[in-house]
Amino acid sequence: MLDYGKLTVALARQDVPLDFLVNVEALNPAENKVTAKMIRLGWALHLNDKETINGVVDTAAVMEPGKPVVMPMRMRVNRVQFFNGPAQDMVALAAAVAGLNPDPTKISLKASPTVETPLGPLAYPNPITIVPLLVVLDDCHWCDPDTAAMLHYLVRRLDRSPILWYVTYAPGLTERDAPVARVLRALRATPSALPLQLKPLTVDDVWVVVRELGRLSAGTSGRRLAGRVHEVTGGNPFYLIELLKTLLARGWVRVHPETGEWIVSEQVTSDTEVGTMPPTVQGAIGQRVARLSDDLHAVLIVIAASGHGCTTHLLSHVHGISRLRAAVLGDALAERYLVCEDQGRYRCAHSIIAAVVLESVRPARRRELHRAIALAMIAADAEGGPPADPGQVAHHAHQGGERGLAYDHAMRACTEARQGGAFEEALGWLDLAALCAAGPDQTGTVDRETARLLEVAGWVVVPPAARRASGGVLFQQDFDLTSG
């Protein structure tokens, strides 16, 4: 609902544009052999076929037969005229011109030109109506070459017509040399183009969506659910809607038959894992991954398996390529929005992408991947590359079947965590070391370190292992909704 009071204040402070530029194209018909001279142009803005404001532009223009003339007309809203009109109509007009009105409105410009003739000034008997047109083209990344060429032709051919072209496309779904990608680059370069890059939804945005769809009325109801859903989906609207639809389809969330409010199903317990990402999202990501070349796919698998991201040193060791080649492949994946580069590390743009990529990797290959990553981290450290994180080396070595390597680095990770005061993390690394210990000597070392850690931390009762919520899973405690 538009707040007319706030908008009126904004108008008084000139926070909303009160003047605007309209390019009017005038044409003297070719069959008329006389050169005309326009000396004045009267105009009126109509909102839903109702006149709101009007004015006169004293712009002289010479119009030769058959040659269009473009006249930039700067129109300024007369404040006295503005506030003398019906308040609601005037504010709605200003909101529509400023792009603030959420309701669909029809704005038209009616022009009445006056031309100079041998008999004196002559005004057109009927005003000329100019109605802007909005053309929406969705998912243009799927355009074939012929369609892309036609789009480019129409936009250039109708450049002076009152048409707003609204073109949407998903970056990363087309190759850089694809015809549609080249056409979109050309369109973005036009002076009148306004590129708009959509950003992910914030936690507050997700909360608004949850409250609106779920008809939640309590003060902070749905806040915790919105935070967890945002963490799972990364604020991607497509992921968000599909996840909420899955919660309803699987019965974890039900609709109250009388109020229509979302309520938590009774079948959800504290140990229930719900909300794994639906097949629609996994299928959409799988299609993007399937179009990759073998080299890009192989690098993406390593990045997904690494968890915390890969440096070019690591990719170079795993694949036996130069660091420059590794950077080229990593950047190509970043251009497709499958990975992101942060402080020299490539990591999957979303945990869901990593899960979909690894789902197609068989256990034998996945085991060798973890082993190669562990060994590459150690080798890169030895060559002066980024220092190897002992915890990461231990994790990948364990997944790769290198028990001795996993034990050594788990003990190192425990020492570092204990020295930093992270006692629970240190205890977790001792759990891994106990799992990988070979022989009574290593087992005894883990036992002694465990006793020492409990004494240093001052724990009488050993704390339970913290549950790590995976990227696409929600738990019962995430649902701060009414139970039913």
Sequence stretches where pLDDT stays below 50 over 5 or more residues? none
Radius of gyration: 32 Å
How much beta, percentage-wise?
Answer: 15-25%
Total helical segments: 18
* Biggest sheet details: 6 strands, antiparallel
User: What form results from the Cα inertia axes?
Assistant: elongated
What is the β-strand count?
Answer: 17
Distance between the termini: 32 Å
Mean pLDDT: 79
In quaternary terms, these chains amount to single chain
Counting helices, strands and paired strands, the structural category is alpha+beta
Task: Write up this protein.
- With about 475 residues, this protein is of the alpha+beta class.
- About 45% of the residues lie in helices and about 20% in strands.
- The protein has helices at about 5-10, 80-85, 85-100, 145-155, 180-190, 205-215, 225-235, 235-250, 280-290, 295-305, 310-320, 325-335, 350-360, 365-380, 390-400, 405-420, 425-435, 440-455, and strands at about 20-25, 35-45, 50-55, 60-65, 70-75, 105-115, 120-125, 130, 135, 165, 255, 260-265, 275, 340, 345-350, 475, 480-484.
- The strands form six sheets. Strands 2, 3, 4, 6, 7 and 8 form a six-stranded antiparallel sheet that branches. A three-stranded mixed sheet has the order 11-12-17. Strands 1-5 form a two-stranded antiparallel ribbon.
- The two termini are about 30 Å apart.
